[in-house]
Amino acid sequence: MTEREEKFEKMLTDIQQNYADVAKKMEKLKEEGKTKSATYCQLMGTKMNYQNMLSLYKIYGLLDD
After folding, report:
1. Does residue 65 have a pLDDT over 90?
2. Which helix (H) or strand (E) holds 15?
């Protein structure tokens, strides 16, 4: 595997982990009834960005199902 491929794989792994972490934080806030908080809204934006990146990887065939 080339250095570039290794960097791509690390980036993909980090994005997937960050997406999961954000989703977990959002779920906790939801359970606490804080879905209208600024933190929840910021996390929603972050989650959407990560989801968009993962969707692009999938569209280009770079993400396993």
Report:
1. no
2. helix 3-31
Looking at residue 64, its pLDDT comes to 80
Look at residues 14, 15, 43 and name the one whose alpha carbon lies nearest to residue 28. 43
In this predicted model, what pLDDT tens digit does every residue of 11-49 receive, in sequence order? Answer: 999 999 999 999 999 999 999 999 999 999 999 999 999
Which residue do the tokens 């959407």 mark? 48
Distance CA 36, CA 29 (A): 9
Torsion on CA atoms 20, 25, 28, 32, rounded to nearest 10: -150
Q: How far apart are CA 55 and CA 15, in angstroms?
A: 11
